Each structure stands twice: as structure tokens, then as C-alpha cells.
Amino acid sequence: MQRVAVLTEPDHVVLEDREVPDPGPGQVQVAVRAVSVCGSDVHYYDHGRIGGFVMHAPLVLGHETSGVVSAVGPGVSAPAVGTRVAVEPQTECGRCEQCRRGRYHLCPDIAFFATPPVDGSFAEYVVVPAHRAHPVPDALTDEAAALIEPLSVALHAADKADIGPGIRVLVSGAGPVGLLCLQVALARGASAVAVTDVMALRREAATEYGATATVDANDHESGLAAIGAAIGQADVVLECTGVQPAVDLAVTAAAPAATVVLVGTGATVTLPLDVVQARELVVKGTFRYAHVYPAAIELAASGRVRLDDMVTSHHPLEDAVGALLAARRDPMALKAVVHPAR
Ligand SMILES: [Zn+2]
Ligand SMILES: [Zn+2]
């Protein structure tokens, strides 16, 4: 048997004993060593839903996962038992139009960890397709390997925006994903990266991670002026908040023909259509990622993004709730990590 932490209803997590899942054909079983908590986990804990994704039954949270391969199913030659891996937490149908076109993250039948009704990784063991267990080098800690998941979100967003040398980037929001977008933009050669946030402590964090400038987003006009003074108009905007005033500020700071990538999830927000049209902005949605785990692992292993520094607390599985509440208890908390196998 194994222990899992189950969200039975909002605000209520219990430890349960469950059968250890056996790997089927083409699958591997992973002993989970680190699971970093995501805003989406916290949202399910608080509300039992995120937009159209609604919990109708108990749900195991956690999707940012690393561990060690502990068993392999029939027909699996790699990764071998004992291999340390970052787990890409999605399994697609492999047959539909989106899968056939390589956009497996857009598969309508995608099974993604901790998204109802699919259980996540607040568990001692999980089973995934072998090709979703990506080997990591010794240079990466278990915590960094878990953070490959949100790093993949940032890398996918940077891909959408074609960030490269000489590009001026505005990152809207200095939460974990914003700080990862900042680091990825710098690693890809952006000439200047300004970061906005309403919280002074978050802006300080952005400075620590190399932001060219940070901007107080509490006031639209002074914020816009400060962005202009720091980087001019942005060639690329990575909007990581999903919050209306921040979206307004970020879009208005874009240069003509700039690309605006909407990374932050929110309810319905409005866009300043006059700005989008008059500047012919390219507005792109982004949903999770596809095909980026290997590149994210290479980038992290190269030392050009700092993942371990983002870990602000560690929790045993019994204290999954403490991990979920960490951000609420400490405004400087970035990533709480649960360690099921410890
Ligand atoms: Zn996440
Ligand atoms: Zn599919």
C-alpha cells in the first residue's frame, strides 16, 4: 500500500492508504520525491474548481513532479529502474486531430495530473507513459526537477513569442511563473526585461532574478511611464496575472506589431481593442506546453535559470495542507515542495 493525500472537498485534505499502481504496457512507475505546489492546486483546495474544470469526486492534487523510476511495464526499455526523472504530467489519446498534428497538449481527451477526474502526485507512487518520464542529470536536485513543469510553461510562452537576442520584454506579474518567464527571457538573450507587480516584495524578487527594471503596477499612468523610461515599448509582453488592471497596463505597454502572450489564467478579462487594433498586436493564448520538457531540463542543467532558489519551504506528505497554505501565510513564499517518499 501507499499513502496519498486526497482533497475530499474544498479545505479538506486527508491521508489515505491506496494500492500502489502497477505500470501497464509502455508505462513506468515513479517513486515520487518532490512535488512543488502550483497556484492551480491551491485554487482547487480553496474552491474545488478552476473555471470549467470542476471536482465531482475526491481528487489527489499535485502535478509538478519528480522522482525515481521504481518499476517498468511490459515493453519498456527506457528509462530504467533507478533513473531520476522529471514527470511530464499529461497523457494524450494519441489518435485525435490535435494529437496527430503534434499539439498533444490540446488533445480534448488529455489526462493531466490533478485536473478532475485525474489524480495527481501527492502520492508515494505514480504511473505514467515511459516517454513522459524525462531523465534528469545529477546536476538537478529533486526540487529543481519538479520545477521543470512550471519552467516548461515559461519556455512554451517564450517559444510562442519568439523571444531571442535583442528583444525587449515586459513580464506582467512577478509570481513564480512570472519569475520563470523573466529568467527564460534573459537566458534567450532578451536585451531588456521589465517586470511589473503590485507588491514591493515581489518586485524585489524580480530584481534578484535579473530584471532590467521593476515597475509598480498599482497606478496605470505612472506604471506606463516607468515601463517606457526603462525599456521603451515592449516587443514582447508575457502577461502572467490574468488580472484586469495588469492586463490593461501590459497590453498598453506593447510596441506596434508586438506579440502579447496570455500566460496567466483568469476569469473573463477585457482587452483594450483600440490598442490591439491600432498597433496590430498579435495576441496569443497559451495552455500548458508540449515538446518542451527536454529543452527545459537542458536549460536548468546549464545553470542559466535558478530553480532551487525559488523553493521556500519543504513539507512531508502529512503536511500537504501546510504546503498548500504556504503562499497565504507568507507573502514571500514562492514554491512550497511536498516530499512524499521521504
Ligand atoms: Zn503548475
Ligand atoms: Zn488526442
From TrEMBL:
Q: Which keywords, in A-to-Z order, does the entry hold?
A: Metal-binding, Oxidoreductase, Zinc
Which Pfam family is one of those matched by this entry? ADH_zinc_N
Gene3D superfamilies linked: Medium-chain alcohol dehydrogenases, catalytic domain, NAD(P)-binding Rossmann-like Domain
Q: Which cofactor does it need?
A: Zn(2+)
* Transmembrane parts of this sequence: none
Alphabetical list of SUPFAM superfamilies matching this protein: GroES-like, NAD(P)-binding Rossmann-fold domains
Query: Which domain of life does this protein belong to?
Result: Bacteria
Q: Where is the Enoyl reductase (ER) domain?
A: 8-307
Q: Which family does it belong to?
A: Belongs to the zinc-containing alcohol dehydrogenase family.
Q: What is this protein called?
A: NAD(P)-dependent alcohol dehydrogenase
